[in-house]
Amino acid sequence: xxxxxxxxxxxxxxxxxxxxxxxxxxxxxxxxxxxxxxxxxxxxxxxxxxxxxxxxxxxxxxxxxxxxxxxxxxxxxxxxxxxxxxxxxxxxxxxxxxxxxxxxxxxxxxxxxxxxxxxxxxxxxxxxxxx
Length: 131
Known about the structure:
The chain is mainly α. The chain is 76% helix and 0% strand. Helix 1 packs across helix 3.
């Protein structure tokens, strides 16, 4: 999934309009439209940081584009979740950092699965058009 697709997915799932998200980021709506359409990318890393914080995902989720398939990415995310929770089930307590890492891993897994579902749905629609 490309940056623009991820951005749109995150925005829609957060129930934000382009205008609302642009305002939160302090950018023009037209700039956000360009990001989502894939016409251009943010020039400043600060934008990626703000998006990651706003949508509670790792900044790298926005920075990486799929040469990585969703199934493999989801598997890695689940492995991270399992490692993070191991301490809890072995009688230990999770530190605040571990809780944050667990929350990020779950959110990443959610967005990956959601993106895959949207992609499959759009692929099905494209196949129906060709029939």
